[in-house]
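Re: folding output
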Amino acid sequence: MMMKIVQILATSGGLGGLEQHTFNLTNELALSQELHVIAHPCYAEKFNSNVKFHAVDFARSRWNIFLLWQLKSLIQQIQPDIVHAQAGKAAELISRIRPFLPDIKVVTTIHGTKKNKSTYLVGDAVIAVSQALAQGIPNNKAHVIYNGVYPQPDLSIEHKQHLLQTIQQDFPQLDSNKKLVMCIGRLEPVKNISLLIESMQQIDANLWIIGDGSLRASLEKQVSELNIQNRVAFLGFRIDARELIQLADVVVLSSDREGFPLVMVEALQADKVMASTRVNGVVEWLPNQYIAEIGDAQGLAKVIKCALQPEAQNDFSALYAKAKAELTVQAMTEQTLNIYKGLLKT
């Protein structure tokens, strides 16, 4: 059954898990369905040629009457079977124009922790990216679909060595004989990289911080004040992060909040042991001995040390296989398509 589907991404410049999820899902759906995406013009190149892209300036307020009118007019012009609103702002915009879209089925997706989920109930179906996020949604609407990623690139030993040598040239202060702890994420408060840096005082390993954000200068200052510059490297935003993750001994997540972290999915797909704080998604997948309480630097140091032990691979080996089977873009897309088809039958 060919469907006409509109995906709405109402962010304006971010490149986090929400955006990557939408790019992957939309591009995969477009292989079998008629896909339209309404998004900020900065994302145009993220979608393949099968996707019909409609540029809208979502930097405007969700109360902006011109934004609401433009969105309503576009959807009425496209006349889709399904409108899928990704995250809170998109869901709220759709809730305001829903009276003008009486014959269209609406799906909303919850990507992050929200105290008030009432906006998402505009959806005839509500998808949550972890079990925890589905709490409070009526059973007749709630569906859990974990984020998926494409398979990791298959890198040769030579390519990995070249990557490692390149980083070592850029950061000669690092001792290449030490094990490598890696963190990938935006340098923003919610990711709490400061907690990870604090915990690394107790660990004889190098730390690569991949990502950029508003806290970079303060985090670099923290590293300097703790006098661990010879073990910490800020690599900034990297388009080859999926390749670099394959060099890690341990991947660490130190966040205060998550929906279902793509970093965890990427790490497990790359056969990498993880240590993490107790955030949504993580608690549904990782062994408990590799999870620290949120905000607990001592606890995080303890689970990182545990993850650096050789026997950790035994604890994770079954998870690697499970992630490769279940946490894929294809699985995520098939489950989403089944929800669409179910709505159109009602």
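--- second protein (sequence, then structure) ---
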Amino acid sequence: MPDTLYDVVILGSGPGGLQAAIHASRKKARTLMLGRMDNSSLYWAHVENYCCQIKISGEEVLKTGRKQAESFGAEFRDEDVLAIEPDGPLFSLKLESGDEIKSKTIILATGSSRNKLNVPGEKELLGKGVSYCVDCDAGFYKGEVVAVAGCRSAAAGGAVALTNFASQVHLYCGELDVNEKLRQQLVETGVVLHEGVTIKEIQGENAVQSVLLDDGSTQAVSGVFIELGAKGVLELTAMLGVRLDENMKYIDADKKQRTNVPGVYAAGDICGPPLQMAKAVGEGCVAGIEAAGYAKKLETA
């Protein structure tokens, strides 16, 4: 078995993913959890409505959970996934570092919220040039000039992917926070990096026409891709063919946390409300156990 083959790979860094890692690794499944802890909304919160805890910081919860999972053999990599696709009975994942791994199962536990810029024009022009999903909408911008907002792997990876469609890609961020290999890809693909410059307004009447920057200048663009953080529900489901609910917002999973794609599970806020840690932990428990069992059956088969 190659070193890059896992039984269970968990995408996400919150309580649902951690609980899945704990249970999957206790089932002796080779388990890898991907994502940066501070990407979880819980990291910055305080918890006072969780059973048996009066008040505790989210950061403490996550750090303790990671230690628990590691004690059972789970592995962790503080990086994001740039691409994921089916590979026969397995799944192939390309990571921020450039490494490629394979897994028998995937657990999606990335949360549901889509970080916003909160600038004028963003809400008004959503779907009219403003997008939160490069993988969903890149094809609409063939030969166009586009802007990407964000400082981490989703933004940098999205900007690189857009160079396959757009005539020019501008990436705006305060301080780029990616590894050297991904930064080099930006250079090699011709992405125009504006480090230290951010978008203050998205302009246009019935469609995006330009962005106003915090240095007072403007840049004519046809599209603005807002990619703040890691890959979200839209990108991941688009890559895998996972079915969403009728509002196209949450993943449709059954009581065993199975999606419509065999070997793909989901847990936590990505599955819909109530958006509470207690629900995420419970679903993570089920997803971890089920994914480990599926991986074992696949190995036997």
